[in-house]
Predict the structure.
Amino acid sequence: YVFKWQNDYYMIPEAHTETSVRLYRATQFPDKWQYEGDLLKGDHFISPTLTRYKGMWWMFVARSGNETLRLFYARDFKGPWTEHPLSPIVKKNLDTARPAGRPFVIDGILYRLGQDCYPTYGNQVHAFRITDISPTTYAETMIDTPLVKASSKGWNAEAMHHIDAHQIGKNKWIAAVDALGRQ
């Protein structure tokens, strides 16, 4: 997960086998990185995804098994991070828990992306409109139609599990997607 903040690039690698969320800063983007510190410690954190919204930093992260989504918040993305009092915000749900890319804002509304890992990993990606988010409240609504879905053939035959969307103009977006296909 790479993001830019105040003219610096930062990276949080996927490290589901580790027991921390590690932060790196680019000393020479894109190929030289320096370890800055751990944002979270003490659990296996899957697909940590940060976003800044309404003056706060928010981190969505799944637990091992892809069925639980935890939410943390901080004033500064380097921490300290506090687990939200309603966390986990998704419990025992393979259809919606695992993060599937960078959250984004449309018309002032924050959306998060979630992998549908049932019946298989990365079956499709859903968007969730976040209708309320604060250090004490959280509510979201799933958009009915998946954004992307595995096609059963070709480059995305088996999984569509990540979207990184960027607005590049008024009503104009571009997205990179990650898939698992067949040869």
